[in-house]
Amino acid sequence: MSLFASWPPAAILALVIAFLLACAAAIAGFVRIRSAARAHQATRAEAERLRGLAKDRAQRIAMLSHEVRTPLALIRGAGELLEDGSAGPLTAEQERFMTTIMDNTSHVISLTEDLLSYARLEATLFDLHLEKLDLRALVRDTVRELRALHDAPLQLDNRGRPIPVLADTRLLREALWNLANNAIRHAREGTPINFHVTEGEGQAVLAVSNEGRGVDSEIREAMFQPFHTTSEKGTGLGLTITKAIVELHGGTILVDTTARSGTTMYFTIPTTLDASHE
């Protein structure tokens, strides 16, 4: 005797309808999964295509940068020989010409290096070579290097135990240089540039401040955009590159500024555990 023989027709009809609805839902779910999978594959393919285009563009810029930097380095080397008197004494007018040549050569070399760094960041071609390092030591060494190149008074507040971070030394040093050069460029003549290093709540914090003109809200919103600059000597890429480097390390960059009262740039990156500090 059939299992459903004693069931009323309405119950059997309801069961059939429920079964059909379940089948329809299962088929619809399968179709959605297949559609999502295809969309995901298409998105991945598009992402790979865009990455390939960005990589190709970065490689072209790298080739161009190399072709530009090589003759510029030779020009700067020849200029340094003339400046130090290796080819004989210069007149006062010749020295002024040499200063112009050297300043502009250095500016163009800096621009090509920034363009190369920006292209590599945009194409996500930077491979982080992470190693454990002491942020205090890195900042101390960087400030010492900066003092050899700049006349501005650089003040360092870096007291305390080592702050271990997991970072790419070369990239983090580049970020420090960018922040320092930006602060020096916009400081009032003769005023100090202050570096302050601290830690708290699992974060290492570096603050670089000057006593410059400060920036208004409009400039503040645009200062990390590529090629935005308010300085004749700036490339407009330094802060963009710095922000990208800090974010690659899992950190953030912040700006505290008041018009005519100076600016402080902060960046934070996570600290790492070090058994020697426990």
* CATH topology annotation of the largest domain: Heat Shock Protein 90
Strand order of the largest sheet: 2-4-5-7-6
Task: Kindly give the count of domains.
Answer: 2
* Cα-to-Cα separation, first versus last residue: 79 Å
CATH class of the largest domain: Alpha Beta
Report the count of strand segments. 7
The fourth-level CATH homologous superfamily of the largest domain is Histidine kinase-like ATPase, C-terminal domain
Q: Which sheet architecture does the biggest sheet show?
A: 5 strands, mixed
Low-confidence stretches: none
Task: Supply Rg.
Answer: 30 Å
The structure class reads alpha+beta
Reading the helices and strands in chain order gives HHEHEEHEEHHEE
